[in-house]
């Protein structure tokens, strides 16, 4: 399958040429030319790598990079810019950029960098766990069930995703904002209240094991204690 690129570049001529060049090299490219629409487009798709121009109208590339990082902590981000200031480069890497390319650049070098990112991720990819142990319980992510002594509790899709995040962060903090944006796509008042309801449900499902606790870390998030 083609690697899906999320490209944000406001220069229409350069963006069109870059999109075409990437597609010639077998990348699947979604191109946005205005930072204001970048995040909604990112949320509406499934991408493997982000290429973000820094100097954009309305919303700059660094801001978009931070917002993407809040939603997806793993997706590679490559900043594309005419800026060569040390502070800007450090800002890009501080956000979690995988690379930082200054204009003008050799397109073959860009392709080589993208292929290197793809290869690194392929080598480090770990199969996602399908079954998690939570105290006396067995949580089957694929089947969306919690099992205790042969008794199954079926979970809703959002309950499943929330419990999975808690398991991934077991005995550590799951930031409230991360869960809200990753599962609900927003962190407004209503989604926050909705998440609290789902946490209450999960506590009820896990109540038979007194060593299990979903602790509310005030103002920060939740922690699954096992």
What key phrases describe this protein's structure?
alpha/beta, Arc Repressor Mutant, subunit A, 24% strand
Describe the protein's architecture and organization.
With about 230 residues, the chain is an alpha/beta fold. It has eight helices and twelve strands. The strands form three sheets. Strands 2-1-3-4-5 form a five-stranded parallel β-sheet, with helices on both faces. A four-stranded antiparallel β-sheet has the order 6-7-8-9, covered by helices on one side. The chain has a three-stranded antiparallel β-sheet with strand order 10-12-11. Strand 4, helix 4 and strand 5 form a beta-alpha-beta unit. It is elongated, with a radius of gyration of 21 Å. It starts with a strand and ends with a strand.
Produce the secondary structure layout.
Blueprint: E1 3-8, H1 12-24, E2 27-32, H2 38-43, E3 49-53, H3 61-71, E4 77-81, H4 86-95, E5 99-102, H5 107-124, E6 131-134, E7 137-140, E8 145-148, E9 151-154, H6 157-168, E10 173-175, H7 176-184, H8 189-205, E11 213-217, E12 221-225
Helix pairs in contact: 6-8
| Helical content class | 40-55%
Query: Strands of the biggest beta sheet: in what spatial order?
Result: 2-1-3-4-5
Tell me the number of structural domains. 2
**Which parts are unreliable, with pLDDT below 50 for 5 consecutive residues or more?**
none
The CATH superfamily of the largest domain appears as Response regulator
What is the global morphology? Answer: elongated
